[in-house]
Amino acid sequence: MAKAWRWFHQLGSPKYLFQKTGQWLPWVWAATLILLAVGLYYSLWASPIEVRQGQGHTVRIMYVHVPAAALSMIAYIAMAIAATVGLVWKMKMAFAVVRSIAPVGAAMTFLALFTGSVWGKPTWGTWWEWDARMTSELLLLFLYLGYIALHASFSDRSKADKAGAILAIVGVINIPIIYFSVKWWNTLHQGYSVTEKGALDPAFQTPLFLMLGAIYLLFAALVLMRLRAEIILRNQKSRWVKEWASGSEVKS
Amino acid sequence: MILTLLKRELKVARRNWIGLAIPLLFFIIVVSLFPFAVSPEAPVLQKLAPGVIWVAALLAMLLSLEQFYRSDYQDGSLEQLLLMSSPTSVALSKILAHWLLTGLPLVVLSPLLGVLMQINHGFAHADHTWVLMLTLVLGTPTLCLLGAVGMSLTLAASRNGLLVSILIIPLYVPVLIFGASTVTASLENMRYNGELAILGAFLLIAIVFAPFASGRALKISVG
Hints:
Shape of chain A: globular
Number of helices of chain B: 8
Protein name (chain A): Heme exporter protein C
Order of helices and strands of chain B: HHHHHHHH
Oligomer: heterodimer
Largest sheet of chain B: none
Strand content of chain B: under 5%
Shape of chain B: elongated
Pfam families (chain A): Cytochrom_C_asm
Distance between the termini of chain B: 22 Å
Largest interface: A-B, 28 and 27 residues
Distance between the termini of chain A: 23 Å
Helix content of chain B: over 70%
Number of helices of chain A: 8
Function (chain A): Required for the export of heme to the periplasm for the biogenesis of c-type cytochromes.
Radius of gyration of chain B: 18 Å
Structural class of chain A: mainly alpha
Domain Cytochrome c assembly protein (chain A): 25-189
Strand content of chain A: under 5%
Number of domains of chain B: 1
Main location (chain A): membrane
């Protein structure tokens, strides 16, 4: 337990975090690229086409859409957790994590909406439908953009961090409320296809789970890269950053 | 303590009554645009009425937020208030004042807008006006509470006017859905107590969390 706490406190040190993420990043990227290559091979070539949905190949969109949608929500929850850690333990690096997740999460949300729309046109015959999941996904995108806009409007970064953290927490309380409210007009969207047994043919599962893993890793890699940039931005004045910038290794 | 703070808010607001009247005027004018834009026919207006009145009320609440926070922040009195009492009670007094001076007048004005939007068209004895007022009574305090959080967060931000709207409107959506759908259910002769109960539940959740969150945010903005 004591060891876990020590590790937790060490993560609060910008220098330690920069060093550690620097060590992790090549591995994360390597795993991402391998999984993405295998996943894309399965989803674009090796997977069967879906006959029931009319135009068989549109099913391949699902392999990007489902992971992006899952990530869009998990990223917001991760943001809120990091925001809580930041506010409760006054840990500045947690705020840097929140700030690093936001744009990646927003991009995932946009990707989920975009791929959903492209899939919906041939399948449902419409680009957009005001159903529960699409609408709450759209509102989720607004919440992400709201956080980014709020964070960008302060000249004082520590105020921006704290205000943004409160917004992230308020937002995460509201996500289930928004979701169940907009479910009111739930019309076209299908039931949960992953958790419901038998809904998804096993042949589609392999590429889907591979892509889920790949997109998770891609998300982690992108967030780590942004986080490293944030750390450098926030610690421009410290000596280790200056030394790092002039080409020397970061030593603990 | 809250009572003293509330008295102060009301006194400050009384000296700026034009500022309080503008959101109400806005409420009426926005609603009166719809007959021009869509159609003056009663059945059409009646169908639009719940949504239009609710959206206009929501925007009027957003517009009126600014004056309860901005000047106090700019002249430094907010800082003094926060030194004097707990941030939660400062936030609560502002929320109460905002509701009493904007939310309540909106509720009182809503029957007039119901008439403009032909809400009782085709019904001889209908209580749609009461339902509309009831949804606003339950819904506008929630809007005040959520708005307070957004406003407190953006006080120290450089771009603020529209920023609050961007932050808060997504959070307003559930209230809007149930507020408008209660009235629609009543217009369609369906039971609406379920929707009313949910509006009440939103209010209770917001009362628990929002004053605290708004207080923390005020402290961050000032501190």
